[in-house]
Amino acid sequence: MSGFRTLLYKEVLRFWKVGFQTVAAPMLTSLLYLMIFAHVLESRVEINDLPYTAFLVPGLIMMSVLQNAFANSSSSLIQAKVTGSIIFVLLPPISYGEFFLAYVGAAMLRGAMVGLGVLAVTTGFAPLQFAAPPWILAFALIGGGIMGSLGMIAGIWADKFDQLAAFQNFLILPLTMLSGVFFSIHSLSPFWQRASHLNPVFYLIDGFRYGFFGVSDVSPFVSLAVSSVFLLAVGAGTLTLLRKGYKLRY
Fold first, then answer.
1. Closest CA to 66 of 185, 170, 149, 184
2. 47 beta partners
3. pLDDT in tens, 120-163
Protein backbone atom coordinates (compact mmCIF):
# COMPACT_ATOMS: atom_id res chain seq x y z
CA MET A 1 0.00 0.00 0.00
CA SER A 2 2.97 2.35 -0.38
CA GLY A 3 1.40 3.76 -3.53
CA PHE A 4 -1.77 4.54 -1.61
CA ARG A 5 0.11 6.30 1.19
CA THR A 6 2.18 8.38 -1.24
CA LEU A 7 -0.80 9.38 -3.36
CA LEU A 8 -2.90 10.19 -0.29
CA TYR A 9 -0.08 12.38 1.05
CA LYS A 10 0.16 14.15 -2.29
CA GLU A 11 -3.60 14.81 -2.38
CA VAL A 12 -3.75 16.06 1.19
CA LEU A 13 -0.74 18.30 0.65
CA ARG A 14 -2.34 19.66 -2.53
CA PHE A 15 -5.36 21.12 -0.75
CA TRP A 16 -3.57 21.94 2.49
CA LYS A 17 -1.00 24.21 0.83
CA VAL A 18 -3.90 26.45 -0.24
CA GLY A 19 -5.90 25.89 2.94
CA PHE A 20 -7.06 29.49 3.08
CA GLN A 21 -9.00 28.84 -0.11
CA THR A 22 -9.95 25.19 0.36
CA VAL A 23 -10.81 25.16 4.08
CA ALA A 24 -11.21 28.70 5.43
CA ALA A 25 -13.28 30.08 2.54
CA PRO A 26 -16.05 27.42 2.80
CA MET A 27 -16.23 28.06 6.54
CA LEU A 28 -16.83 31.75 5.88
CA THR A 29 -19.50 30.95 3.27
CA SER A 30 -21.41 28.75 5.72
CA LEU A 31 -21.15 31.39 8.43
CA LEU A 32 -22.62 33.98 6.07
CA TYR A 33 -25.49 31.62 5.19
CA LEU A 34 -26.19 31.15 8.88
CA MET A 35 -26.07 34.84 9.76
CA ILE A 36 -28.38 35.85 6.89
CA PHE A 37 -30.97 33.10 7.29
CA ALA A 38 -30.93 33.28 11.08
CA HIS A 39 -31.43 37.03 11.02
CA VAL A 40 -34.41 36.76 8.65
CA LEU A 41 -36.15 33.61 9.91
CA GLU A 42 -35.10 32.90 13.50
CA SER A 43 -38.08 34.64 15.10
CA ARG A 44 -40.55 33.49 12.45
CA VAL A 45 -39.86 29.80 11.84
CA GLU A 46 -39.67 26.74 14.09
CA ILE A 47 -39.13 23.28 12.61
CA ASN A 48 -39.66 20.00 14.48
CA ASP A 49 -39.89 21.99 17.74
CA LEU A 50 -36.39 23.36 17.07
CA PRO A 51 -35.39 27.01 16.69
CA TYR A 52 -34.63 27.68 13.05
CA THR A 53 -30.95 28.40 13.68
CA ALA A 54 -30.51 25.11 15.55
CA PHE A 55 -32.23 23.29 12.68
CA LEU A 56 -30.02 25.03 10.13
CA VAL A 57 -26.57 24.43 11.64
CA PRO A 58 -26.31 20.63 11.07
CA GLY A 59 -27.52 21.07 7.50
CA LEU A 60 -24.87 23.69 6.80
CA ILE A 61 -22.17 21.47 8.30
CA MET A 62 -23.18 18.51 6.17
CA MET A 63 -23.58 20.61 3.04
CA SER A 64 -20.03 21.89 3.54
CA VAL A 65 -18.71 18.35 3.97
CA LEU A 66 -20.42 17.18 0.79
CA GLN A 67 -19.54 20.10 -1.46
CA ASN A 68 -15.90 20.18 -0.41
CA ALA A 69 -15.41 16.44 -0.70
CA PHE A 70 -16.73 16.63 -4.26
CA ALA A 71 -14.63 19.68 -5.07
CA ASN A 72 -11.42 18.08 -3.84
CA SER A 73 -11.40 14.91 -5.92
CA SER A 74 -12.97 16.47 -9.01
CA SER A 75 -10.64 19.48 -9.13
CA SER A 76 -7.56 17.33 -8.56
CA LEU A 77 -8.36 15.01 -11.46
CA ILE A 78 -9.37 17.69 -13.94
CA GLN A 79 -6.25 19.74 -13.15
CA ALA A 80 -4.06 16.68 -13.61
CA LYS A 81 -5.73 15.87 -16.95
CA VAL A 82 -5.60 19.42 -18.30
CA THR A 83 -1.95 19.96 -17.33
CA GLY A 84 -0.89 16.46 -18.38
CA SER A 85 0.50 15.59 -14.94
CA ILE A 86 -1.94 12.67 -14.65
CA ILE A 87 0.67 10.59 -16.50
CA PHE A 88 2.92 10.69 -13.42
CA VAL A 89 0.15 9.07 -11.39
CA LEU A 90 -0.72 6.47 -14.01
CA LEU A 91 2.82 5.30 -14.82
CA PRO A 92 3.82 3.98 -11.35
CA PRO A 93 2.53 0.51 -10.36
CA ILE A 94 -0.39 1.85 -8.32
CA SER A 95 -3.51 -0.30 -8.44
CA TYR A 96 -6.85 1.26 -9.27
CA GLY A 97 -7.99 0.34 -5.75
CA GLU A 98 -5.17 2.38 -4.21
CA PHE A 99 -5.93 5.20 -6.66
CA PHE A 100 -9.57 5.20 -5.58
CA LEU A 101 -8.86 5.03 -1.84
CA ALA A 102 -6.28 7.82 -1.96
CA TYR A 103 -8.45 10.30 -3.84
CA VAL A 104 -11.61 9.51 -1.90
CA GLY A 105 -9.70 9.47 1.39
CA ALA A 106 -8.27 12.93 0.75
CA ALA A 107 -11.71 14.20 -0.27
CA MET A 108 -13.23 12.83 2.94
CA LEU A 109 -10.46 14.43 4.99
CA ARG A 110 -10.99 17.84 3.42
CA GLY A 111 -14.75 17.52 3.89
CA ALA A 112 -14.28 16.56 7.54
CA MET A 113 -11.90 19.45 8.18
CA VAL A 114 -14.30 21.95 6.67
CA GLY A 115 -17.21 20.39 8.56
CA LEU A 116 -15.39 20.65 11.88
CA GLY A 117 -14.47 24.23 11.06
CA VAL A 118 -18.08 25.11 10.27
CA LEU A 119 -19.17 23.45 13.51
CA ALA A 120 -16.62 25.52 15.42
CA VAL A 121 -17.67 28.86 13.94
CA THR A 122 -21.44 28.23 14.13
CA THR A 123 -21.78 26.47 17.47
CA GLY A 124 -22.16 29.78 19.32
CA PHE A 125 -25.24 30.68 17.27
CA ALA A 126 -27.43 27.76 18.38
CA PRO A 127 -27.54 25.12 21.15
CA LEU A 128 -26.54 21.73 19.72
CA GLN A 129 -27.44 18.62 21.69
CA PHE A 130 -25.30 15.84 20.10
CA ALA A 131 -28.05 13.32 20.87
CA ALA A 132 -26.42 10.45 18.93
CA PRO A 133 -22.76 11.12 17.99
CA PRO A 134 -22.26 7.74 16.20
CA TRP A 135 -24.93 8.75 13.68
CA ILE A 136 -23.16 12.06 13.09
CA LEU A 137 -19.88 10.29 12.38
CA ALA A 138 -21.48 7.60 10.20
CA PHE A 139 -23.33 10.01 7.92
CA ALA A 140 -20.35 12.37 7.69
CA LEU A 141 -18.09 9.52 6.54
CA ILE A 142 -20.65 8.07 4.14
CA GLY A 143 -21.42 11.51 2.71
CA GLY A 144 -17.76 12.31 2.22
CA GLY A 145 -17.22 8.95 0.53
CA ILE A 146 -20.18 9.44 -1.81
CA MET A 147 -19.15 12.92 -2.89
CA GLY A 148 -15.48 11.99 -3.15
CA SER A 149 -16.49 9.17 -5.51
CA LEU A 150 -18.83 11.41 -7.51
CA GLY A 151 -16.02 13.94 -7.74
CA MET A 152 -13.78 11.29 -9.26
CA ILE A 153 -16.48 10.36 -11.76
CA ALA A 154 -16.91 14.01 -12.72
CA GLY A 155 -13.14 14.56 -12.98
CA ILE A 156 -12.71 11.46 -15.13
CA TRP A 157 -15.63 12.33 -17.40
CA ALA A 158 -14.86 16.02 -17.88
CA ASP A 159 -12.30 17.07 -20.47
CA LYS A 160 -12.22 20.73 -19.49
CA PHE A 161 -13.13 22.96 -16.58
CA ASP A 162 -16.46 24.17 -17.96
CA GLN A 163 -17.72 20.59 -18.24
CA LEU A 164 -16.80 20.03 -14.60
CA ALA A 165 -18.52 23.29 -13.66
CA ALA A 166 -21.67 22.11 -15.46
CA PHE A 167 -21.60 18.82 -13.55
CA GLN A 168 -21.31 20.70 -10.28
CA ASN A 169 -23.80 23.49 -11.02
CA PHE A 170 -26.53 21.35 -12.62
CA LEU A 171 -26.25 18.21 -10.49
CA ILE A 172 -24.33 18.56 -7.22
CA LEU A 173 -25.52 22.05 -6.29
CA PRO A 174 -29.27 21.36 -6.81
CA LEU A 175 -29.02 18.02 -4.97
CA THR A 176 -27.45 19.67 -1.93
CA MET A 177 -29.47 22.90 -1.90
CA LEU A 178 -32.79 21.03 -2.26
CA SER A 179 -31.98 18.29 0.23
CA GLY A 180 -33.55 19.84 3.31
CA VAL A 181 -30.63 21.94 4.48
CA PHE A 182 -32.78 25.06 4.80
CA PHE A 183 -36.24 23.52 5.28
CA SER A 184 -38.12 20.42 6.37
CA ILE A 185 -39.69 18.46 3.53
CA HIS A 186 -42.92 18.38 5.54
CA SER A 187 -43.35 22.04 4.64
CA LEU A 188 -43.56 21.07 0.95
CA SER A 189 -46.55 19.99 -1.09
CA PRO A 190 -47.16 16.22 -1.36
CA PHE A 191 -45.66 16.08 -4.85
CA TRP A 192 -42.40 17.76 -3.81
CA GLN A 193 -42.24 15.65 -0.67
CA ARG A 194 -42.25 12.53 -2.84
CA ALA A 195 -39.72 14.12 -5.16
CA SER A 196 -37.42 14.87 -2.21
CA HIS A 197 -37.35 11.19 -1.33
CA LEU A 198 -35.71 10.55 -4.69
CA ASN A 199 -32.79 12.80 -3.73
CA PRO A 200 -30.09 10.67 -2.06
CA VAL A 201 -28.53 13.74 -0.44
CA PHE A 202 -31.76 14.31 1.50
CA TYR A 203 -31.10 11.11 3.47
CA LEU A 204 -27.57 12.25 4.32
CA ILE A 205 -28.77 15.61 5.63
CA ASP A 206 -31.72 14.14 7.52
CA GLY A 207 -29.69 11.38 9.14
CA PHE A 208 -26.89 13.75 10.05
CA ARG A 209 -29.37 16.14 11.70
CA TYR A 210 -30.85 13.21 13.63
CA GLY A 211 -27.45 12.69 15.25
CA PHE A 212 -27.66 16.16 16.77
CA PHE A 213 -31.28 16.37 17.93
CA GLY A 214 -32.77 12.90 17.73
CA VAL A 215 -35.50 14.10 15.34
CA SER A 216 -35.75 13.52 11.60
CA ASP A 217 -38.20 13.54 8.71
CA VAL A 218 -37.65 9.82 8.02
CA SER A 219 -36.24 6.97 10.09
CA PRO A 220 -32.45 7.26 10.47
CA PHE A 221 -32.18 3.55 9.69
CA VAL A 222 -33.85 4.16 6.33
CA SER A 223 -31.47 7.07 5.71
CA LEU A 224 -28.48 4.91 6.63
CA ALA A 225 -29.60 2.09 4.34
CA VAL A 226 -30.25 4.37 1.34
CA SER A 227 -26.98 6.25 1.85
CA SER A 228 -24.96 3.04 2.20
CA VAL A 229 -26.44 1.56 -0.98
CA PHE A 230 -25.74 4.80 -2.85
CA LEU A 231 -22.15 4.80 -1.59
CA LEU A 232 -21.65 1.24 -2.80
CA ALA A 233 -23.16 2.10 -6.18
CA VAL A 234 -21.07 5.20 -6.88
CA GLY A 235 -17.96 3.52 -5.45
CA ALA A 236 -18.43 0.53 -7.75
CA GLY A 237 -19.02 2.87 -10.70
CA THR A 238 -15.84 4.80 -9.96
CA LEU A 239 -13.77 1.63 -9.62
CA THR A 240 -15.15 0.38 -12.94
CA LEU A 241 -14.08 3.57 -14.71
CA LEU A 242 -10.61 3.37 -13.16
CA ARG A 243 -10.18 -0.28 -14.04
CA LYS A 244 -11.13 0.38 -17.67
CA GLY A 245 -8.95 3.47 -17.84
CA TYR A 246 -11.84 5.52 -19.22
CA LYS A 247 -10.52 8.92 -20.40
CA LEU A 248 -7.37 8.32 -18.37
CA ARG A 249 -5.28 5.68 -20.09
CA TYR A 250 -7.02 5.83 -23.45
1. 149
2. 50
3. 988 888 778 888 999 999 999 999 999 999 999 999 999 999 99
